[in-house]
Specification:
about 325 residues; alpha/beta; Helicase, Ruva Protein, domain 3; 2 domains; five-stranded parallel sheet
Length: about 325
């Protein structure tokens, strides 16, 4: 079975997706790889960074390359849950209400500047992200498959932002930042064509059916007992450390394993190594922990290094 999984991973089109995305968003190959791993693990992605570094472009880019239906929701302070989920409108001729689906009914949903909306509007995503369905006016409606939320978040020190509650943060499998490009890539960007203009020329590299099949293959990636012990040791350390108000939950541990399996799949392996776990810890773990440290992505990197440094590698 391991050999079959290795062969399946090695022949998937996701390397082509990574190469195509890397040619548009220069110098961010590792961040793109994490985003792909998040999709393959059936998770949702939170990108926190300054405006103008490519957060929205990355979301649109992934949707186009993966051949998925895409919608964008601009979150604002006056937004209501119905603006996300949809609303029923009365039809006089038929003497009945007809439900008009909101932008959440899409395969890739970009929740742009999610922390500029009030907690009431943010809560419209909770059921959708956890259960892949929404309940409106007493009726439950299934969302498309695959379903993936990419949310962008401005730094919390900026004016007009509402911090995401812990229950909302926990529904994001990964939280990453893009950051400024390196000097060489930024000069190439300034001398070339605006990356957003390249999006219209891109063609899908894969299909929704192929993505679903790959997600199923990721679930079958083998995890040895030693790697499970390592993940559990990471969980246990966060729970007994005085640095954190509380440690990772069992759901956080499952998220760590799912992300590590997706990372191994992208590397062409049918089994997880401790290195796969270490590579995804900075994106999976820090935003699930509460401490007195800096809550910016920079502070997250320090938390990840602290946790990884405290637990021996098997």
């Amino acid at each position: 079975m391991l050999r079959n999984l290795r062969e399946a991973a090695a022949t998937t089109p996701f390397t082509d997706v990574l190469d195509a995305a890397d040619a548009v968003i220069l110098g961010k190959r590792e961040e793109i790889r994490l985003s792909l791993a998040c999709i393959l693990a059936r998770g949702h992605l939170l990108i926190e960074d300054l405006p103008g570094v490519g957060k929205t472009t990355l979301a649109h880019l992934l949707a186009r390359l993966l051949g998925l239906q895409y919608s964008r929701i601009q979150f604002t302070s006056d937004m209501l849950p119905a603006d996300v989920i949809g609303v029923s409108v009365y039809d006089r001729a038929g003497e009945r209400f007809h439900f008009h689906p909101g932008p959440i009914f899409s395969q890739v949903v970009l929740a742009d500047e999610i922390n500029r909306a009030t907690p009431k509007a943010q809560s419209a995503l909770l059921e959708a992200m956890e259960e892949r369905q929404v309940t409106a006016e007493g009726d439950t409606r299934a969302l498309p498959s695959p379903f993936f939320v990419i949310a962008t978040q401005n730094p919390t020190y900026q004016i007009g932002t509402f911090p995401l509650p812990e229950s909302q943060l926990d529904r994001f499998l990964m939280r990453i930042e893009l950051g400024y490009p390196a000097a060489a890539e930024e000069k190439a960007l300034l001398a070339g064509v605006d990356p957003r203009s390249k999006l219209a020329e891109l063609r899908p590299v894969t299909t929704a059916a192929e993505l679903i099949a790959a997600q199923q293959q990721v679930e079958r990636v083998h995890v040895a007992s030693a790697v499970i012990d390592y993940c559990h040791a990471l969980l246990s350390f966060t729970r007994r450390s005085d640095r954190f108000l509380h440690g990772l939950s069992p759901r956080g541990g499952l998220a760590l394993l799912r992300a590590a399996k997706a990372r191994a799949f992208l590397e062409g392996r049918g089994y997880v190594l401790p290195e796969d776990v270490q590579q995804v810890v900075p994106a999976v773990v820090p935003h699930r922990l509460i401490s007195g440290d800096d809550n910016s992505p920079g502070g997250h990197a320090d938390i990840a290094a602290f946790v990884l440094g405290a637990v021996p590698v098997p």
